[in-house]
UniProtKB/TrEMBL annotation:
Function: Involved in the type II fatty acid elongation cycle. Catalyzes the elongation of a wide range of acyl-ACP by the addition of two carbons from malonyl-ACP to an acyl acceptor. Can efficiently catalyze the conversion of palmitoleoyl-ACP (cis-hexadec-9-enoyl-ACP) to cis-vaccenoyl-ACP (cis-octadec-11-enoyl-ACP), an essential step in the thermal regulation of fatty acid composition.
The encoding gene: fabF_1
Ketosynthase family 3 (KS3) domain sequence ranges: 3-405
Entry protein name: 3-oxoacyl-[acyl-carrier-protein] synthase 2
UniProt pathway: Lipid metabolism; fatty acid biosynthesis
Source organism: Paraburkholderia nemoris
Record-linked PANTHER family: BETA KETOACYL-ACYL CARRIER PROTEIN SYNTHASE (PTHR11712:SF347), POLYKETIDE SYNTHASE-RELATED (PTHR11712)
Top EC class, one word: transferase
GO molecular function list: 3-oxoacyl-[acyl-carrier-protein] synthase activity
Highest rank taxon of the organism: Bacteria
Family named by the database record: Belongs to the thiolase-like superfamily. Beta-ketoacyl-ACP synthases family.
InterPro entries to which the protein is assigned, alphabetical: 3-oxoacyl-ACP_synth-2, Beta-ketoacyl_synthase, Ketoacyl_synth_AS, Ketoacyl_synth_C, Ketoacyl_synth_N, PKS_Beta-ketoAc_synthase_dom, Thiolase-like
Length: 405
């Protein structure tokens, strides 16, 4: 199949690093962590998180924003920025049936579901909100965004755990390739910082128990002990090259390649030889029509867990050698689960656009088992402005995206 680059004409970000692309890019380039002690998690085994800064509900531009779960609010806020960036006006489409919305999530409206379950137990069935499912179902961020912007094309919500947001962007590229849409609003969103979710991850011993919140998320470091949970959304506007040209749009970057795979190995642990990761990266290279030597930067999944960082690094080294610059932005943002892949894809697109890659925050003593050119301390100017972003999820679900000018 011939390469099909999809134009990225708009980016929107709502993350712990800031509300908006400018604040996000400044924060990740600085390598300054956003993790803090979270009062809402008091007395749990882990009390730290990476939260999105407060924003006025009026910024959502919808009546009754209280009817939207937090994960859907993030998605709409990021969508509005992405559309402004792309120079597109919601509800004023040439043909609304050619505008698709694909927004993935790993968990959906967890806060709504937990609150209403507690209501059921404490007050009884008659006090459960009638809005529980319209707010809590995993597909509702995509559905509510489509309603808010008047998009009548394909609309769905892929769920591939921590690869959900990246999967959405890859599937958006394929919708454009197939001719089913001219514009795709694609990305991921998550609002999982609840006592239930944090307790569940803590029981798995997946979360960092570092008492210093600011240094808790430290991908690739020899002393890493788990990830810090985060929240937020990343949205990109994708268009066919022809459609972007027809309206004189600025193209920030292009999705050159998309690859997906399954480990078929374990519910939570990656394949010990990095088989699934390697398959996804190779598939993305084939889709882009590129050799490994073309990649100038890898935005790693880099969770700051012992197992993932070593396995991913081994797969990366075997495919690209030790020369490719690698970093993980989770040292700044924490791990945003189903939104992580979309947010990190946006960072990779920005790196390709601007020729600069962010460092890995809190990386002081690289793990000797990780033999890669790890970017830390300061941003790195890129020799080749082609960036690969990796996302790997529970269930062994993997996605890789390649961005270039």
């Amino acid at each position: 199949m011939a390469p099909f680059p999809a134009a990225v004409t708009g980016i929107g970000l709502v993350t712990p690093a800031g509300v908006g692309v400018a604040d996000n890019w400044r924060r990740v380039l600085s390598g300054e962590s956003t993790a803090t002690v979270d009062a809402a998690l008091k007395d749990l085994p882990v009390e730290i998180s990476c939260r999105v800064p407060e924003f006025p509900a009026a910024d959502l531009g919808v009546p009754n924003p209280w009817q939207w779960d937090r994960f859907a609010q993030f998605a709409l806020l990021a969508t509005r920025e992405a559309l402004r960036d792309a120079g597109l006006e919601p509800k004023q489409w040439r043909d609304s049936s050619r505008v698709a919305v694909i927004i993935g999530s790993g968990a959906g409206g967890t806060m709504t579901l937990e609150e209403q379950h507690a209501m059921l137990l404490s007050e009884g069935a008659d006090d459960v909100s009638a809005l529980t499912l319209p707010m809590g179902l995993l597909n509702m961020a995509a559905g509510q965004v489509a309603i808010a912007i008047g998009a009548r094309g394909p609309c769905f919500a892929p769920c591939s755990a921590c690869a959900s947001g990246a999967s959405a962007i890859g599937l958006g590229k394929e919708l454009l390739r197939s001719g089913a849409a001219d514009v795709v609003i694609a990305g991921g969103t998550e609002a999982p910082i609840t006592r239930f979710y944090v307790s569940a991850f803590a029981r798995m011993r997946a979360l960092s128990r570092n008492t210093d919140a600011r240094t808790a998320s430290r991908p690739f470091d020899a002393t890493r002990d788990g990830f810090v949970i985060g929240e937020g959304a990343g949205i990109v506007v994708l268009e066919s090259e022809e459609h972007a040209r027809s309206r004189g749009a600025r193209v920030r970057s292009r999705v050159l390649g998309y690859g997906a795979s399954a480990d078929a190995h374990h519910l939570t642990s990656p394949h010990p030889e990095g088989l699934g990761a390697t398959l996804a990266m190779k598939a993305a290279l084939r889709d882009a029509g590129l050799e490994p030597s073309a990649i100038g930067y890898v935005n790693a999944h880099g969770t700051s867990t012992q197992g993932n960082d070593v396995v991913e690094s081994t797969a990366t080294r075997e495919l690209f050698g030790a020369r490719v610059p690698v970093s993980s932005t989770k040292g700044v943002t924490g791990h945003l689960l189903g939104a992580a892949g979309a947010i990190e894809a946006a960072y990779a697109a920005l790196a390709a656009e601007q020729g600069s890659a962010p460092p890995t925050a809190n990386l002081k003593t690289p793990d000797p088992k990780i033999d890669l050119d790890l970017i830390h301390g300061a941003p790195r100017k890129l020799d080749r402005r082609v960036a690969l972003s990796n996302s790997f999820g529970f269930g062994g679900q993997n996605a890789s995206l390649i961005f270039g000018a």
